[in-house]
């Protein structure tokens, strides 16, 4: 089930692992390393409720002719940004940890953008221009 959720978030780094067991193991380590980020994400949930209420109150003060339904629509639209932002932050953190796992295992991949560096001898990534990391330099 958890693997299906991460597939929905489209983590192309998972395709670099040869077996499903390797994918699960790397994903488990990456999500464990991202635990603080995930905790932060779940702390956003009460903030989303507060944003909804505040946005509704602001809409009621600024647009009194809009009516109750319109004010709630504005409030819910503002609240939808919280989970979207949280999901993006968690996804980026897990993606970065997966790239580090790949580099540690000897795969040639750019830590910044995920570009496949197998055919490149350049010290810089041809996609993003950042210096390519070596497994020994990764913590």
Question: What's the arrangement of secondary structure elements?
Answer:
Blueprint: H1 2-8, H2 20-33, H3 35-62, H4 68-104
Description of the molecule:
With 139 residues, the protein is an all-alpha fold. The chain is elongated. The chain is built from 4 helices and no strands. The chain folds into 2 domains: 106 residues, no CATH class; 32 residues. 62% of the residues lie in helices and 0% in strands. Helix 2 crosses helix 4 and helix 3 runs antiparallel to helix 4.
Helix content: 55-70%
Which structural class is indicated by helix and strand composition?
mainly alpha
Q: What is the mean predicted local confidence, pLDDT?
A: 77
* Oligomerization category of the chains in this entry: single chain
Question: Low-confidence runs (pLDDT<50, min 5 residues)?
Answer: none
Rg to the nearest angstrom? 20 Å
Count of runs of 4 or more consecutive helical residues: 4
Largest sheet, in brief, is: none
> Overall 3D geometry?
elongated
Beta strands, count: 0
Q: Give the strand content.
A: under 5%
User: How many domains?
Assistant: 2
- What distance separates the N and C termini? 30 Å
N-to-C SSE string, H for helix and E for strand: HHHH
